[in-house]
Design goal:
By secondary structure, this protein is mainly alpha-helical. The chain has 20 helices and three strands. Strands 1-3-2 form a three-stranded mixed β-sheet, with helices on both faces. α10 packs across α11. The relative contact order is 0.11.
């Protein structure tokens, strides 16, 4: 009994320290960052950078201090741990291993760099001038080369960056996926070209003002299960999701007046992630487990709601009348017209505008480029040309300017080097999850057309959402779908979707 009392006391103390770290983490990464990308005055960046650096330093010191380390040592592999405590310690060990290997001063400089680089990236994008952003990007890649050297312990530097975002992910696994999927995408695109449907002109809808588009987002997301009493949707330069807790989830989306589809699918993607975050068991707060287990798992849910749901025939059947009430311009088209339109096959210069076939080609381009830079095969100064060359070779298109080329994504500016390959995992996972739901609940198209979104949300909650990060992505996918992650369901999904639309 005496030993149990010591265990319980230390567990309570440990969770109190974890809660303190979470307060700093959510304040820094969610609330302050959310404000920075939505409403913060432009001139506030200098002082805001200092605040972010201060909070990051406090977080670093808490997690790298001797008391925290002593608790980790006590609970690591402790036979008295339940599943949640065991998962908590494993997650802390993994994260602290990355953090502890980076010198404190260097980590603080990195936080300051990212805070500034995002603003500079936005300026460069607005002014259509890569050279404004170039020195910051050079410093970011230099920083991650050093980080990779700390994390790789003599192994492959780029593998170390992949593993930071997705446990166990390697260039070998990514290359194997690319090898399997790339020929399939090329073959299907060739069939589309032969059938004369590749690159058909999109329906002209709009322009639609931002106010009506935001009203549309709120209507759709509310029906799909996003709680606006536990979250909100705001406008920012790059769509994202920021959660302070399951009861305070911030969705950031963007829109284009000339094309309402752009904003709608951004909202579906980020809003789907928001539904995920809101559904995590709030009892996991104070354990580091009240979040998705990985970027790819969260992204998989975003892709599921964006593509599997949002581009289904059932979605446009169910929401057609509601959409027309808000956006009268849609009355000129039938649901079937809109369904076919959002599933068109054709290349795009912009990743987030890409169709489902060419999307992964965008990811391949970024994967190859950042890997070359990290491995010293490509200089940042040569990145715009290399980017344009790959777009010509892979998509048959050449960006006319930096804004629609190398400056289109915020990821590198935000320090997400090694993140893009996670999109491979997410797309495969989304399709495999969809196939599993259909096996248990019947046709997803029927479920969606009848507006039974609660069926989908309940299935996802039971199989994935509620667990947070108690289980890793690999475990969750296998538990939810009954089999390890593979590419077959993804290819079957694309083949079925586009054969329905184009009859080939």
């Amino acid at each position: 009994m005496r030993g149990l009392s010591i265990y319980d006391t230390r567990l309570r103390e440990f969770k109190e320290m974890i809660s303190e770290v979470e307060y700093l983490k959510y304040t820094l990464n969610s609330l302050i960052y959310w404000d920075k990308i939505t409403y913060m005055p432009e001139e506030g960046i200098e002082y805001r950078t200092k605040v972010m650096s201060y909070l990051a330093d406090k977080q670093y010191k808490l997690m790298s201090g001797p008391k925290f380390a002593a608790h980790v040592k006590f609970f690591k592999n402790n036979k008295r741990n339940d599943k949640i405590t065991d998962s908590m310690v494993k997650r802390i060990c993994r994260n602290s291993e990355f953090l502890s290997k980076v010198p404190e001063e260097e980590y603080s400089r990195y936080i300051e760099l990212v805070a500034v680089s995002e603003q500079v990236w936005e300026e460069a994008k607005n002014k259509n001038d890569f050279q404004i952003f170039r020195p910051y990007l050079e410093e970011i890649f230099d920083t991650f080369r050093r980080f990779a050297s700390y994390w790789s312990e003599g192994g492959d530097s780029y593998d170390a960056l992949l593993n930071y975002y997705e446990e166990g992910l390697t260039t070998k696994k990514v290359d194997e996926t690319v090898k399997k999927i790339k020929p399939f995408l090329i073959e299907m695109a060739a069939e589309a070209k032969e059938a004369g449907v590749y690159g058909r002109e999109r329906l002209k809808i709009g322009p639609v003002d931002g106010a009506r588009q935001q009203q549309l987002w709120r209507t759709v997301l509310a029906d799909m299960g996003f709680s606006f009493s536990a979250g909100r949707v705001d406008i920012g330069s790059h769509p994202t999701i920021l959660a302070n807790s399951p009861q305070d989830v911030r969705v950031v989306s963007s829109y284009a007046e000339k094309d309402m589809r752009f904003g709608l699918f951004n909202a579906l993607h980020s809003g789907g992630k928001g539904i995920y975050q809101q559904s995590i068991d709030k009892g996991l707060l104070g354990t580091f487990l009240a979040e998705a287990p990985s970027f790819s798992m969260e992204e998989a849910i975003g892709r599921f709601y964006e593509n599997v749901v949002g581009r289904s025939r059932g979605f446009w059947t169910y929401f057609y009348d509601k959409m027309c009430t808000i956006v009268g311009e849609l009355k000129g088209f039938q649901p079937e017209d809109l369904y076919a339109d959002v599933n068109k096959i054709g290349p795009s210069l912009i990743r987030i505008d890409a169709d489902q076939f060419t999307y992964l080609l965008h990811i391949i381009i970024r994967y190859e480029l950042e890997r070359q830079i990290i491995e010293g095969q490509l200089k940042v100064e040569d990145l715009p040309k290399a980017w344009n060359d790959k777009y010509r070779d892979y998509l048959g298109m050449i960006p006319s300017c930096d804004r629609e080329g190398v400056l289109q994504d915020i990821h590198w500016a935000a320090g997400y080097v090694g993140y893009f390959p996670s999109y491979f995992i997410s797309n495969l996972s989304a399709a495999q999850i969809a196939a599993a739901i259909e096996r248990e609940e019947g046709s997803l198209d029927s479920v969606i057309s009848e507006g039974r979104f609660g069926v989908i949300k309940s299935w996802l909650h039971e199989k994935i959402f509620r667990y947070g990060a108690v289980y890793n992505t690999e475990e969750l996918v296998e538990y939810a779908t009954g089999k390890p992650l593979a590419a077959e369901d993804y290819m079957d999904y694309l083949r079925k979707r586009f054969s329905e639309v184009y009859k080939f």
